[in-house]
Amino acid sequence: ELFKVNEKISNKCVGILQRARKHRLLHFSGETLWQGKDDNVVITLLRRNRDIQVYFTHTKQLLPNEENGNMCFDIKSPRRAHFNWVTNVEEVEEDTLIYHAQLNIPEIEELCEVYED
């Protein structure tokens, strides 16, 4: 029975690690981790723990951590905010954040279609 409890805990831990990697919060080599075989695999945090905790405390949302984003702007505020269109958030000072967002500029043909309607 102890083995089954240990296996359940191990599976939950691996699931948490895989979700964290999917959200680009940490990195480890390979697709999954196996008990025993991967005991010496290095797991690297890609974001500071403080960034994740402070953002979640203020917004109750996961920290956006996408690679894409072609526009960024600084906001000086002690309070964090969550916006669905933000792709990444970085703290540059204790009260200053940089929000990254993906700005899509329409093609001329798309603009013409809008004005014709």
How do the strands of the widest beta sheet line up side by side? 3-5-4
Low-confidence stretches: none
Distance between the termini: 68 Å
Tell me the radius of gyration.
Answer: 20 Å
Number of helical segments with 4 or more residues: 3
Determine the structural class based on helices, strands and strand pairing: alpha+beta
Q: Helix coverage percent of residues?
A: 25-40%
- Main sheet characteristics: 3 strands, antiparallel
**pLDDT averaged over residues:** 81
Number of strands: 5
Q: Which descriptor suits the 3D outline?
A: elongated
H and E order: HEEHEEEH
Range of strand content: 15-25%
Q: What can you see in these coordinates?
A:
By secondary structure, the protein is an alpha+beta fold. 35% of the residues lie in helices and 21% in strands. The protein has helices spanning 2-22, 49-59, 108-116; strands at 26-27, 44-45, 71-76, 86-93, 96-101. It has a three-stranded antiparallel β-sheet with strand order 3-5-4, with no helix packed on it. Strand 4 and strand 5 form a beta hairpin. The mean pLDDT is 81.
Question: Which short descriptors sum up this protein?
Answer:
single chain, 117 residues, alpha+beta, 3-stranded antiparallel β-sheet, two-stranded antiparallel ribbon, 3 helices, elongated
